[in-house]
Amino acid sequence: METNIKITDYEEKLKKIDEMLEKYKGQKGALLQALQEAQGIMGYLPLDVQKKVAESLNVTLSEVYSTITFYSFFNLKPRGKYQIRVCLGTACYVKGANKVLERFEQELGIKVGDTTDDIKFSLDACRCVGACGLAPTVIINEDVYGRLTPDKVPEILKKYE
What we know:
Elements: H1 9-22, H2 31-42, H3 47-57, H4 61-70, E1 82-87, H5 90-94, H6 97-108, E2 121-126, E3 138-140, E4 143-145, H7 153-158
Parallel strand pairs: 1-2
Antiparallel strand pairs: 1-3, 3-4
Helix pairs in contact: 1-2, 1-3, 2-3, 3-4
């Protein structure tokens, strides 16, 4: 009797990571590149991926973890389709960015660093984005929103529904 075994999307991604890691086996100094590629495949770096990278590159799991947590562009949790970054640099903060951030938290039901349950939105705070003249500024993926007030947050979120 023939059985159909469906490989999950997660398992398929793990397989791609295994294939990608083959080219880095035994290479010194390949940790950052391997982690970047693994995150590109998976979207984040869960523990089982960290273990695969450590084993493949013959480094300790603690070295992999410390590298991931040192660099801000690596993620330990899944990230949303829409990544919201609220600038908390000096100009933005002085003009009320903390209140804008609180409104995003309230509307999305998450805190900074978290992702909504439907993996639609991730919320982060960041330092200066170089748009001080537009303070307070929020970036959602590639879209920049300036001169924000907390009451504009629901309207902005509707654009991504």
